[in-house]
Specification:
rod-shaped; single chain; coiled coil; phosphorelay response regulator activity; alpha/beta; Sig_transdc_resp-reg_receiver
């Protein structure tokens, strides 16, 4: 009896708390085995977070294992017929011969061992160290997986950042090119005596547009051209039904602001009036067997809707870009796929006239029609005189005005 008192102590609340925790049966992280002779902790991390604090007021799994060892609970490992762990690699199973689910009579006999007895039993200390080592290895593996995942995320972020840097570099190069061309444009203005600050230098433009005799002569010439074209279009209009009520009822006379250009068809035949024979195959629209697009650079929804509808009904493919910078970049990369450009003079980020300057520095072939509100525009006048712009379409315009400007440059279906 003397020896018994020195080697063991009366039972404490720990064993009964352990039994009540297992009897709750509402936690899938800790449960009895089917035969009720041992219990299993299936998820040590979740067990430490949720179950331990409710019953033992701490979250230290290693401390819980040490308590089990002090009451002579042993860790066991159940395997199936194939030698695989029944409760997985991370499952912890503990057993005590007197700790049974269906027989509580032996619980009071489970005593906590005194330190002297624990040191004398040597293997218990080793078992505790092995458990701690296994726990550390498990945590190390978890950290290593987390580190690998972070490394992959970092690599992906670096790749995306490199892509953004390359995109910004291209944007910067484009803007530098824009500023360079604008500076050259202003220099040309000054050399020609066409500074925007000097409005007197545009008196000859205003006089030409306000001179009654010049206006009457231009109007008569435009009316003669309109009558000739109306006769050619009469048969097509008789068989084609378009929503003419969509267009303004007032008649607007389209007046070219520069001398008529001489155009040549695919057979080399010259057409001084600017109208090539549309019966021949168009090398501007059909190139390498592919139908080219008509680019509409405009942020005016009404203008885009009207132009797109007319062109699509005439059998054309349309690409719409709402600002000047994007229009220049599109032509820089896809010039071979564009057969005609309809450009607003007023555009976000880069005005239409400056955009034309940049386009002409890269491409002198694609025809460009400027859409203007009819006001005097010195830059536009300069581009017309320089041959950078092929036509000017003044607003408001109707269907006939539109096709009169477009038809010399592309092959259209009946409209």
């Amino acid at each position: 009896m003397e020896d018994d008192k020195t080697t063991a102590t009366p039972p404490t609340e720990f064993v009964w708390k352990l039994y009540m925790m297992l009897e709750e049966g509402n936690d899938n992280t800790v449960f009895w085995t089917p035969d009720g002779r041992s219990f299993v902790i299936s998820d040590t991390i979740e067990f430490s977070k949720t179950t331990l604090p409710r019953h033992f007021r701490h979250k230290n799994f290693s401390s819980f294992v040490r308590q089990l060892n002090k009451y002579d609970f042993h860790k066991v490992k159940s395997t199936n017929d194939d030698g695989e762990p029944v409760y997985g690699e991370n499952g912890w199973e503990f057993k005590h011969p007197n700790f049974l689910q269906f027989d509580t009579s032996g619980i009071d006999s489970i005593r906590r061992k005194l330190p002297e007895k624990r040191r004398a039993e040597g293997p218990s200390g080793y078992r505790e160290l092995e458990d701690e080592l296994h726990d550390l290895k498990r945590k190390h593996e978890s950290l290593q997986k987390h580190f690998t995942s972070l490394s992959e995320d970092f690599s992906n972020a670096i790749g995306k950042l490199s892509g953004l840097q390359e995109s910004l570099k291209k944007k910067e190069e484009t803007m530098n090119h824009v500023f360079s061309m604008l500076a050259e444009f202003e220099y040309r203005f000054e050399r020609l005596g066409m500074s925007q600050d000097d409005t007197a230098s545009f008196d000859h433009i205003k006089r030409r547009r306000t001179d009654p005799s010049a206006a009457a002569q231009a109007q008569a010439q435009a009316q003669a051209q309109a009558q000739a074209q109306a006769q050619a279009q009469a048969q097509a209009q008789a068989t084609t039904n378009y929503d003419d009520h969509m267009w303004p009822s007032t008649t607007h006379t389209w007046l070219p602001l520069h001398p008529p250009q001489v155009r040549r068809d695919s057979n080399g035949k010259a057409h001084p009036d600017g109208h090539a024979d549309n019966t021949a195959e168009s090398t501007e629209i059909h190139q390498n067997g592919e139908v080219q697009k008509i680019l509409i650079a405009s942020d005016d929804s009404d203008c885009v809707k009207i132009c797109s509808t007319l062109l699509q009904k005439a059998g054309q493919v349309v690409e719409v870009i709402p600002d000047g910078v994007d229009a220049v970049e599109f032509l820089q990369t896809s010039a071979s796929h564009v057969g005609l450009v309809l450009m607003e003079t007023v555009l976000p980020r880069l005005d239409g006239c400056s955009a034309v300057e940049l386009i002409r520095s890269m491409n002198r072939q694609v025809p460009i029609i400027m859409i203007n509100d009819g006001s005097v525009n010195p830059k536009l006048e300069f581009l017309l005189q320089s041959g950078y712009v092929n036509e000017v379409l003044a607003r408001p315009f109707n269907k006939d005005d539109f096709f009169k400007a477009v038809s010399p440059h592309v092959s259209l279906a009946s409209y």
